[in-house]
Design a protein that fits this description.
Layout: H1 2-16, E1 31-37, E2 47-54, E3 68-73, H2 87-94, E4 96-101, H3 108-111, H4 122-141, E5 151-156, H5 158-169, E6 176-180, H6 188-192, H7 216-221, H8 227-236, E7 241-247, H9 255-267, E8 271-277, H10 297-304, H11 306-309, H12 324-327, E9 330-335, E10 338-346, E11 348-355, E12 370-372, E13 378-380, H13 384-402, E14 417-424, E15 427-437, E16 440-448, E17 472-478, H14 500-506, E18 510-514, H15 535-552, E19 556-566, H16 568-579, E20 583-589, H17 611-614, H18 627-634, E21 638-642, H19 652-668, E22 675-678, H20 688-701
Parallel strand pairs: 3-4, 3-5, 5-6, 6-7, 7-8, 17-18, 17-19, 19-20, 20-21, 21-22
Antiparallel strand pairs: 1-2, 2-4, 9-10, 10-11, 12-13, 14-15, 15-16, 16-18
Helix pairs in contact: 4-5, 15-16, 16-18, 18-19
Amino acid sequence: MIYRWLVVLLVFSVTASSWADDWPALPEQNGAVEISAQEWPLRPGPRSVRVLVHYPGGKLANVGERTGLMLTLHNWGGTDCVGTASPTVLAEKLNVVALCVNYLQSGPKDSIEGPEPYDFGYLQALDALRALWWLDHGLKGRGVKVATGRVFATGGSGGGNVTLMCHKLAPRTFACIIDLCGMKKLSDDIAFKLQGGSDLDARFSRDPASPNFLSLDHQELRFVGNPDHLATTKLLGSRTKLITVHGRDDTTCPFPDAVEMVNWMNRAMLDVEPHFIGKDRIDGKVFTSTGHALGNRTEIVLQLGAKLLSPSDPERGERTEPSDFERRETIRYRTSNGAFEIDYAAGFPVGRFVAKESLPDYPNHQDLSFGLDRDGTKQDVKTPADWAKRREHIVRHFQRVTGPLPSPMRRVPLDVKVLEEVKVGTLTRRKLSFQSDPTDRVTAYLFLPVVHAARVNVAKNTDAREPRTPRLPAVLCLQQTTNIGKDEPSGVRGDPGLKYALELAERGFVTLAPDYPSFGAHAYDFDPKHGYVSGTMKAIWDNIRAVDLLETLSEVDADRIGCIGHSLGGHNAIFTAVFEPRLKAIVSSCGFCSMQKDDVPSWTGPPYMPLIASEFKNDVNRLPFDFHELVAAIAPRSFFASAATKDNDFDVSGVKDVLAAARPIYELVGKAEDLVGHFPEAGHSFPEESRKRAYKFLQRTLASGKQ
């Protein structure tokens, strides 16, 4: 369905720039105007939105050099300025031109009673941003000087959602936004009126033939806590102060969604300031409710944004870099089946979904010296940018065998449960479980090195005079094929030569050893109904969630996380690292060799990759990947291979082939010293000397967290 929209949006993007001089003039005093808006595919044809303008003192003539611009956006079902901070008060007290925008589906007729699904912040945010651009464009056109860096937005409930989406679609435009109990996530229960944490009904359909079909790409875009998109926002250079205010007892816009969004914003290192309103904040004047209403939304904005929104406070929020309107660039957020682009070529934003480019077939997967254009033309890999294009093809081809990496929408709260805690020498070992996806829990052992009781927990330390507990590097420790699962790398039982989770913890690492699906205490039947095409992808997802768990620990430095595994764990570590960039150093013991020198049918059982048999007929020449590509795809992160010379499972010459092919890529990215091969005279094992070398490698490469 999203691609049915594509043609309309592309046509619009071509013609939109010609409209730039046809905008209505700014009113001389407080008033309303109608501006053109991007077409809504569910009701094709021209569309406009009503914008209410509020000047300081009620007149355009009062706008001056310290005057800022501000959106204040109404709630779901509202119009004009309902359910948000008063624009007249904001204009007077903050010296801003305040805009209320009747964005798409304003009013109950379209938002609540209409047959179409509720937009949930996509075109609505584009409408609001277009109004903001119109104001900025109009002021500049009249030669009115304003404080162009003082750009703010706020909104309540649905308006809070649109405010958050405005920042997502224009991440370098706002100095500060204040979200008041807005929707954070188009969850399945809201989208499809399922039982869940909200009574909201967005009226979408699961039926691809329905005009109201909600594609995964659309759902991912509307998730303002989408970790992949937040990482892109950070990479783009957003410096916006994000203030989010949410009642702890809010069930209309579920409070857990707010916690999740803040957690992901923190992990993306965005400047987020949460205010979760409990009974201790109720004062009867500003805050009157711990639920959805919150209280006096005008006073909440003035109180929490007092310094940032003030035109004269020395700590005021003021953007110094060009806005997205001024940059005239295209912002791109990847989605499962393509991307969403926000095109600022005309100044105002035009949004569109685009499909992935076609995937070229490679004649072999051992030669990494070139990439292929969409028409199959060879392009030599000469720069890291050239390699990035080939790497994207590698990841997509690998997913032809494993099935797709789950969408960020599949992330659920970890809900960690500690089942047991014991002392092992000076270490603390916790047996725990965590929620990996909506239907499955994973069991694991967590080792914590010595923690001195007198030291202060970093996560809670706010006094600079107190000594801070140094955060530690962490390693995800993956098991070999053994029914006892995590017990072996944890040293509980099994081969004492494979207790690397215990030995690394004794060397000062935080370690986490999860059960592979169907092993240890992790019962799993590999039925496709769970949402995974292969056991390999299920394990990859479990490991990604294990990294999520490590990041939540106050003892862990999130910039220093590695992964180690033997045999099954050795290739599981590689597979996970291809998709998980937070893994900065990877150790694989007897875990791989070139598929050209391996027993291909051995990879086809339910815990691994059944499509190798059903789709690729166990033919190594038809396989769309090889380990040469996967190991190179880990670059520039550190990789250590321990390959025993007498390994009967993985041919050592095939390991050397892989490392030789990957080395030019490591050299290209300036990390040749971080691709290491060690070849002990042994069978399928992880000898003590090899483990010591691997541990030193992890200590070196995770020493600073700088990659």
